[in-house]
Design brief:
By secondary structure, this protein is of the alpha/beta class. It is built from 15 helices and 5 strands. The chain has 3 domains: 113 residues, 3-Layer(aba) Sandwich (Rossmann fold), CATH 3.40.50; 64 residues, Helicase, Ruva Protein, domain 3; 122 residues, Zinc Finger, Delta Prime, domain 3. Strands 2-3-4-1-5 form a 5-stranded parallel sheet, sandwiched between helices.
Length: 331
C-alpha cells in the first residue's frame, strides 16, 4: 500500500462488478478523506489532458482526492495518458487517487500497473452465495449501528433477491425506521418494511410450496405472476430451495450448521431453515419435485401451449405432495 503521512493510501483501486460493494468502498474512501478537496472524473466522458490537469501539482499544497469512475471505459488515448502517469508515479502526500473499475478484460493493463504500485485494493465480486449476502446484510446494519437477527437476514435476502443495491437501500431504510430501542431487528421488522407491496417473489412461492401450504402456494404464485415476476425466475427459486433440501438431507443431523456452511456453500441460517423444512419431506419427495419442475421448465419455455398452466400444475403437485406427506412420491 502506498501510504502517506496521514495513514491513508495514496492509491486506491475499487475493482469488480458488484455495484453495491463499489458504492460502499467509494463511500468509505471518501469519508476517510472528508477534508480533501474532491474531483470526480468519469471514464466515458474523460477527454485527453483532463486527467493530467487534475493530478498536476497544486500551487497551494491543499489535500486533494481524485476519483476516476468507470476506468474500464476510458478511450485508448486517455488510457495511455494514465499509464504514462503511473509509470512515472511519484509519491505526493497531499494527492490521493481512487480508481473504480467494473471488472472484465477492458483496461486490464491499467489495473496491473495500479496493483504494482501496491494500491489499497477493494474487491467487489458478486454476492452469489447465501452466506456472502448474509455477511453483507450484517455489515450494512453494523455500519448503521444496528444488529439484525438470522431470521431477519433470511427474510430480507429473500425479499430482495439478487439486487444488491436494493438490499443495501433496504438495510439503510430499515435501520433508520426501526425503533432504536430494539436490540435486534427481526423478520417482523422486515415484513413491516415491505408491508403494502403487492408483489410476491419466487422465494415466497418456494417457501409456501416446501411447507406444503397449498392455498398460499397458489396465492403467492398468482401474485408473483401478476406483479411481473418471470416464470423462469419462479422455477429457479423453487429449484434453488429444493437443492438446499437435497444438500442438507445428505449430512448427519448432529453436525452443527456453522460447521457445514463452508462445505455446503450455504449460510448457517439457511442450513437450519432447510433442516426444519425437511421434517415434512419423506424419501422420494425431492426426486418427485425435481421431476415436476423439469416438466414445468419445458412447459414455460415453449414446450406446452400454456406455460403458466404448466408452472401452476407443478406448484400444486409438489405442495399437495408435501401436505400428504409424500404418499404418492416417487421412490
Amino acid at each position: 500500500m502506498v501510504a502517506n503521512q496521514l495513514g491513508l493510501a495514496e492509491l486506491v483501486l475499487i475493482h469488480g462488478p458488484e455495484d453495491a460493494l463499489a458504492d460502499r468502498g467509494l463511500e468509505l474512501a471518501l469519508a476517510a478523506r472528508s477534508d480533501f478537496e474532491r474531483t470526480v472524473l468519469t471514464g466515458t466522458e474523460l477527454e485527453v489532458g483532463r486527467f493530467s490537469d487534475a493530478v498536476a501539482p497544486s500551487l497551494f499544497s491543499e489535500k486533494r482526492v481524485i476519483v476516476l469512475k468507470d476506468l474500464q471505459d476510458v478511450s485508448s488515448e486517455v488510457s495511455e495518458e494514465i499509464q504514462d502517469y503511473l509509470e512515472k508515479f511519484e509519491s505526493d502526500p497531499n494527492l490521493n487517487l481512487v480508481f473504480l473499475h467494473a471488472g472484465g478484460v477492458k483496461g486490464k493493463g491499467l489495473i496491473e500497473k495500479i496493483k504494482k504500485l501496491k494500491a489499497e485494493y477493494i474487491p467487489c465480486e458478486p454476492l452469489k452465495k447465501a452466506n456472502d449476502k448474509a455477511e453483507f446484510v450484517k455489515s450494512e446494519f453494523a455500519r448503521h449501528g444496528r444488529k439484525i437477527s438470522p431470521s431477519g437476514i433470511e427474510a430480507l435476502v429473500n425479499a430482495t433477491g439478487n439486487d444488491s443495491r436494493e438490499l443495501a437501500s433496504a438495510c439503510s431504510q430499515i435501520a433508520s425506521d426501526t425503533d432504536p430501542k430494539k436490540n435486534f431487528i427481526d423478520e417482523s421488522d422486515i415484513s413491516k418494511y415491505y408491508q403494502g407491496r403487492v408483489e410476491a417473489t419466487g422465494f415466497d412461492v418456494a417457501d409456501a410450496v416446501i411447507l406444503g401450504d397449498v392455498k398460499n402456494s397458489l396465492i403467492s404464485l398468482r401474485n408473483a405472476l401478476e406483479s411481473g415476476t418471470d416464470p423462469i425466475m419462479i422455477i429457479s427459486a423453487l429449484s434453488s430451495s429444493i437443492r438446499s433440501l437435497a444438500k442438507v438431507s445428505d449430512v448427519p443431523k448432529h453436525v452443527k450448521s456453522f460447521e457445514l456452511a463452508g462445505k455446503l456453500g450455504m449460510a448457517p441460517w439457511q442450513i437450519d431453515k432447510a433442516r426444519r423444512q425437511l421434517n415434512k419431506w419423506r424419501p422420494g419427495m425431492i426426486t418427485f419435485a425435481i421431476t415436476e419442475l423439469s416438466k414445468a421448465d419445458i412447459g414455460v419455455k415453449g414446450g406446452e401451449v400454456d406455460g403458466i398452466f404448466a408452472l401452476e400444475r407443478a406448484v400444486l403437485a409438489i405442495a399437495e405432495n408435501v401436505a400428504r406427506g409424500g404418499a404418492k412420491a416417487s421412490v
